[in-house]
From TrEMBL:
InterPro entries: RNaseH_sf, Transposase-MT_Hybrid, Transposase_1
PANTHER family the UniProt entry points to: MARINER MOS1 TRANSPOSASE-LIKE PROTEIN
Record protein name field: Transposase
Organism, as annotated: Larinioides sclopetarius
Residue intervals passing through the bilayer: none
A Pfam match: Transposase_1
A GO molecular-function descriptor: nucleic acid binding
Length: 177
């Protein structure tokens, strides 16, 4: 996720800010599992992402111990770090089944249609101005923590429904109602 920061001197202009932050977030039907903001000037490559996954696994052991000895599924977008050999090998070693994601399908990515929907409906972050990255991170963290547990479960039901529509449409584009 990328968020723009508008500094006070730029508030009246309609130009995009050059200050950005990236959020990596994992959740299941019970709620938020792990989130971390990528440090400024850091490239998310396979090595970095493998570190994120290691931290995710440690977090899962703490907050979802029932997953520790079970195989579990990871819906994964097809960004290069996600599909890198070292990442796929890491996930295989830890018995994590990756659910592949079709390219350019925001309608099938829960992070895109549920957590941070595309414009014009950016939800609770729409129209807000932030003076620095820390402000963005604090606000996003507050927003994520405020999501009811039932909404997380509902997002996976929505994903199932959307996947069924995709199957019926033979993988072709369709309008989501």
């Amino acid at each position: 996720m990328v968020f723009n920061v508008i500094t006070p001197s730029q508030k009246n202009r309609l130009t995009k800010s050059r200050i950005k932050t990236l959020l990596i977030v994992f959740f299941d039907s019970k709620g938020l599992i792990h989130r971390e903001f990528v440090p400024a000037a850091t490239t998310v490559n396979a090595e970095y992402y493998e570190g994120v996954l290691k931290r995710l696994l440690l977090r899962i052991c703490r907050i979802r111990p029932q997953y520790r000895n079970e195989r579990w599924n990871l819906p994964h977008e097809n960004a290069r770090p996600h599909t890198a050999i070292r990442v796929t090998q890491f996930l295989a070693r830890h018995q994590v089944t990756v659910l592949d994601h079709p390219p350019y399908s925001l309608d099938l990515a829960p992070a895109d249609f549920f957590l941070f929907p595309p414009p014009p409906s950016k939800g609770v972050l729409k129209g807000q101005r932030f003076s620095d990255i820390t402000q963005i991170q604090q606000r996003v963290t507050t927003v994520l923590r405020a999501i009811p547990k039932e909404a997380f479960a509902d997002s996976f039901q929505q994903l199932y429904t959307r996947c069924q529509k995709c199957i019926v449409a033979n993988g072709e584009y369709f309008e989501v109602q």
